[in-house]
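Tip: read the tokens left to right.
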């Protein structure tokens, strides 16, 4: 923090310490320096130093003015709260335009709540749909394709082979919603072939397994 008092005393060099009593001090003004280039026109009265304070507040007492500045808004707020407790001042000045900022923040919070509410309503509506009316094969294809895409983020390790957790998840989905094994492997075969066309490295054994199961189903062997 930096404190500046308006007086006519001569300038002294060296390290000095000044103590000011808080008796009858009142917080009058809050402010912020928006530019550091034109320091001479800022409310600190021509301060030029490497400290570069940006946030300040004024204390008045019987015509005297003390300006306290800091480089962080948090430091200023801490000082203001401490002064409120020490002096018992009830009037709390606000920054110019603070009401507009509060209104903008309020509108942003309201829009965020509306978006979250809309998402929750969509999820609730989706969850309330009877299970037998949904096309679970379509959802399974999306789930399987997304699992394969995630696994292929490291193609040289997976080569298209799903992790044990992913296979367990797909097994549970097929069991719960009646996805047939042939449908599952046909979707997997299509996904793997598409990945190969896009230049991904895929284990040929995976394609052979899915193709064999689909061929056995068509020929009546499975």
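Filled-in amino acids:
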């Amino acid at each position: 923090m930096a404190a500046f008092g308006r007086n006519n005393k001569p300038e002294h060099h060296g390290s000095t310490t000044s103590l000011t009593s808080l008796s009858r001090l009142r917080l009058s003004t809050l402010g912020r320096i928006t530019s550091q280039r034109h320091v001479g026109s800022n409310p600190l009265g021509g301060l030029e130093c490497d400290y570069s304070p940006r946030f300040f507040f004024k204390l008045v007492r019987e015509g005297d003015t003390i300006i306290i500045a800091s480089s962080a808004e948090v430091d200023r707020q801490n000082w203001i709260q401490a002064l409120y407790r020490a002096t018992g001042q009830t009037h709390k000045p606000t920054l110019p335009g603070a009401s507009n900022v509060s209104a903008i923040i309020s509108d942003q919070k309201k829009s965020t709540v509306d978006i979250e509410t809309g998402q929750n309503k969509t999820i609730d509506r989706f969850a309330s749909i009877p299970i037998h009316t949904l096309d679970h094969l379509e959802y399974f294809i999306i789930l399987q394709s997304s699992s394969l895409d995630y696994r292929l983020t490291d193609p040289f390790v997976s080569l298209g082979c799903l992790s044990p957790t992913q296979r367990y998840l797909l097994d549970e989905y097929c069991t719960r919603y009646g996805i047939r094994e042939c449908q599952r492997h046909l979707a997997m075969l299509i996904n793997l072939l598409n990945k190969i066309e896009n230049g991904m490295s895929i284990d040929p054994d995976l394609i052979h397994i899915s193709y064999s199961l689909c061929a056995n189903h068509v020929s009546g062997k499975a």
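The helical segments are 73-87, 98-127, 136-151, 155-158, 164-177, 181-197, 204-218. Residues 131-218 form one domain.
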